[in-house]
Every structure is written in structure tokens, then in C-alpha cells.
Design a protein that fits this description.
14 helices, ten-stranded mixed beta sheet, three-stranded antiparallel beta sheet, alpha+beta, elongated
Length: 426
């Protein structure tokens, strides 16, 4: 087939689906709330604070990996009209705006997150019970960013990084809370304060809450706090010799068949600095039958997976329940690869913290948008898949009878769903 190309199309865009998403942001008052709550002051009046907020959140929704990509939007008349702009600011000016953020301003974004979470979680899901998975990840950095330190790094050993802590709602994929931390901070450092803050985001009426976490969060301080708050937990256990010796001393008769060649047992034990005994569940597996993902403790004949919990339920069910925590790793990958956390950064720690908080807010807004307007069938889809279906739609902006019209493909596969969303937002 012979083909001739012509650069004659006017007012074309690849972001035709952004109209509905942007309309949801407007209807939710997220931009107004951020403009009201965030007290960052600007010196120049070329762009207002609200303009920068809209621009940066649009970049996050589109999945931009660096500030300079805003350049490509300057010829997109649809996005310019939607944001009520004549042109986009230079990438350096967006970075300068973000560098005005400090601790106080980051907390102001958290305040908006809290208000919106309470409102839209109830509207989108209205659950009475939540399972919260706490985890950390490593964001590798190249450069001299503030707070970028050498610490635990299983991808690039010796590399500078950030070490954020995140809390996901297992049932809904919502990112309840997250904080950017320096790369040399340990998993459990500041976790109690983190849990205190995330608990203020829980909507009224939810009383049954269970926390799951890996061995990095196995500490007396965390366990005592969760017990004091009457919160359920199931947490992997660290490789303490005292606990391992206790496990090895358990008689064979105490074990029951679990699955395959694995066996399960329950015991109560008090560590040296603990005030009370706590419930432990141990699964032992002969080494030749071990699953590498469960390889925590090693001993001559068996390898062990050990959990501590305050939940009174069948131990086998609790093991299966804990294993579902693996989804948190997939949710973190979605943040890294679909929302590019750790990619849009500056050399200022608090600017990067603000970017991190904006990213969490955008992620949750998309989760709520999917569930409220598209349906639960889209809940498990990734942000990347959602973009491909409902955002990255070729379109043309035209003006007819003094009214702007966005022309979308006639045979678009999700046409009826898009019409439905538009009607719901009208």
C-alpha cells in the first residue's frame, strides 16, 4: 500500500478521554481544595498557584516521566483550553514552583487527601472492614537530591535512594497513605506515627481493621501500639535466634499437616524485652520442598515461615490471609511504572515529598473514578490499562456555533461507556 503523509490536521489530541477525568476533578473540588489549603506563595503572577496545581496533576495523570515532557502539550489546543491556558510554563518554572514547598505545605496536601479519602471511599466502596498492607520500597536516584542516602537496596547496592513507606487498602487498591523517607531510614522507623496519621484518614463507621506487614515492621513498639488501639495484625517475624531456638524446640506432635509436605503449629512466647506473651504461627517445610518466596529461616532439616498475630482464627486460614499481602508488591510496581514515582523529581527533598503526595492523590482519584463511573470490572485493571482504554483516545477539537466540540472516533470500542460517564458527570 502506498501512503502519503500530510501535516494538515488541526487541533488534534491523543488525550481525548481527559475531558471526563478532568470534569471529575472539577466536580470533586480537588483543585479548589488544594488551592485553598496549600499556602505556598508565588512572586510572579504569570501563572497562578491553581494553574501550576492543575498542570502538574495533569502531567501525573498522563504518566509523564520528566518535567520537560510538558513541552509536548504546548501544541495541544484541547488540553490548553481544558486548563484555560494560552501556553504551558517552562519545565524549570514548574520545578521552581514545587521547590517552594516545605513540610507545612506537604501536610496541607495530606489534609486534602484525608478529606477526599473519607468522602470518596464511602461513595465508591462503603466498606465496613479494611485490610491495610504496609510496605516499603526503594526509589533509586542519580544525582545529589536532598535525603538521597545509601541504605538497604536490593536493586542497586550502594546507590543513593529514597525509602518510602506506603499503606494500601487490600480490598480496594486505594493508597491510604504514604511518606517519602531518606534512603538510610529503617523500615520500622517512624511507623507508629505513620499509622497514627493514616488512622485519621479512615472514614467514620469502619471499626474492623487488620494490618499486615513483613518482618521489617516486627517491633515491640509497633505491636504494642496496634494492641493499644485494638487493631488486629499479622506480621512476619525477624530472624531472632531466641525465636528460632523456640521453634526448633517444638515437638513434632504439636505440628499438623498444612499443605504438601508443610506442617503448621501455634505457640505463645514472650521475648526478653516484652511484657506479655504473644501468639506465633509457624509453618515448617522440608528444604527439598521449599518455596523460595517463603524462605525466611534456615535450619538443618526444615525452613520456617513465622508470623506473629493477635487474631483468633484458624491458623491455616491466617497463613492464606497473610499470603494475599503479596498484592501490595504489585500495587507498588503500579506506582513505580504507571505513575512514575521517583522519576519526576527535583533536588529538593520537600519538593519531592510534595510530588509524592500529589501522586498518591492522583492515583486515588483514578481508583475512585474507575469504580464510581466505570464499574467494579475495572477495579483490578492497572493505571496503564486504564489510560489505554479511557484516556489515550485520538480526538479533534472543533468550534461550531460558538461552542467547542470534541470529535472522538466513530467506532470507538468504549463509546457507550464514555457516553455513560459523561451523563453521570453532567
Amino acid at each position: 500500500m502506498k501512503l502519503k503523509t500530510e501535516f494538515t490536521g488541526d487541533n488534534l489530541t491523543i488525550f481525548g478521554g481527559y475531558f471526563n477525568i478532568f470534569n471529575f476533578f472539577i466536580k470533586s473540588n480537588v483543585f479548589k481544595k488544594l488551592d485553598k489549603f496549600i499556602s505556598v506563595k508565588k512572586r510572579k503572577k504569570v501563572y497562578e498557584k491553581l494553574d501550576y496545581i492543575k498542570i502538574f496533576m495533569t502531567m501525573l495523570i498522563f504518566g509523564f516521566k520528566n518535567m520537560n515532557q510538558v513541552f509536548f502539550l504546548n501544541k495541544d489546543k484541547f488540553v490548553l483550553n481544558l486548563l484555560n491556558l494560552k501556553e504551558f510554563p517552562h519545565a524549570s518554572n514548574i520545578a521552581k514552583f514545587l521547590k517552594r514547598f516545605g513540610y507545612k505545605h506537604c501536610q496541607q496536601i495530606v489534609d486534602v487527601k484525608r478529606e477526599l479519602f473519607k468522602k470518596f471511599h464511602k461513595k465508591a466502596f462503603n466498606l465496613k472492614r479494611l485490610t491495610i498492607d504496609i510496605d516499603t520500597t526503594v526509589l533509586n536516584l542519580w544525582g545529589r537530591q536532598e535525603g538521597a542516602e545509601k541504605g538497604y537496596n536490593d536493586v542497586k547496592r550502594g546507590n543513593r535512594s529514597y525509602h518510602p513507606i506506603l499503606a494500601f487498602v487490600y480490598e480496594t487498591k486505594e493508597l491510604l497513605h504514604g511518606i517519602l523517607k531518606p534512603g538510610d531510614s529503617y523500615c520500622s522507623n517512624g511507623t507508629v506515627e505513620f499509622i497514627k496519621e493514616l488512622m485519621t484518614m479512615i472514614p467514620y463507621g469502619i471499626h474492623n481493621i487488620t494490618f499486615r506487614a513483613d518482618s521489617g515492621f516486627f517491633s515491640q513498639e509497633i505491636l504494642e501500639f496496634l494492641e493499644k488501639m485494638k487493631l488486629e495484625y499479622i506480621i512476619a517475624v525477624k530472624n531472632y535466634p531466641t525465636i528460632l531456638n523456640k521453634v526448633i524446640s517444638i515437638k513434632d506432635i504439636a505440628y499438623k499437616h498444612f499443605e504438601g509436605k508443610s506442617e503448621i503449629a501455634v505457640f505463645h512466647y514472650r521475648l526478653k524485652n516484652w511484657d506479655i506473651k504473644r501468639k506465633f504461627i509457624v509453618v515448617r517445610t522440608p528444604k527439598e520442598y521449599i518455596n523460595p518466596q517463603l524462605n525466611i529461616f534456615e535450619e538443618k532439616e526444615y525452613e520456617y515461615q513465622i508470623l506473629v498475630t493477635n487474631i483468633s482464627s484458624d491458623p491455616k486460614k491466617l497463613i492464606y490471609f497473610y499470603r494475599k499481602r503479596g498484592n501490595a508488591e504489585n500495587y507498588i510496581k503500579e506506582q513505580k511504572y504507571d505513575l512514575n514515582i521517583g522519576k519526576l523529581i527535583t533536588d529538593s527533598f520537600w519538593a519531592n515529598q510534595a510530588i509524592f503526595q500529589f501522586t498518591i492523590l492522583c492515583y486515588n482519584m483514578l481508583v475512585w473514578f474507575k469504580n464510581i463511573f466505570i464499574g467494579k470490572s475495572e477495579l483490578k485493571t492497572t493505571i496503564r490499562t486504564f489510560r489505554e482504554r479511557f484516556l489515550l483516545i485520538p480526538a479533534q477539537l472543533i468550534k461550531r456555533s460558538r461552542q467547542f466540540i470534541l470529535k472522538l472516533p466513530r467506532n470507538f470500542i468504549y463509546k457507550e461507556k464514555m457516553k455513560s460517564i459523561e451523563l453521570q458527570l453532567a
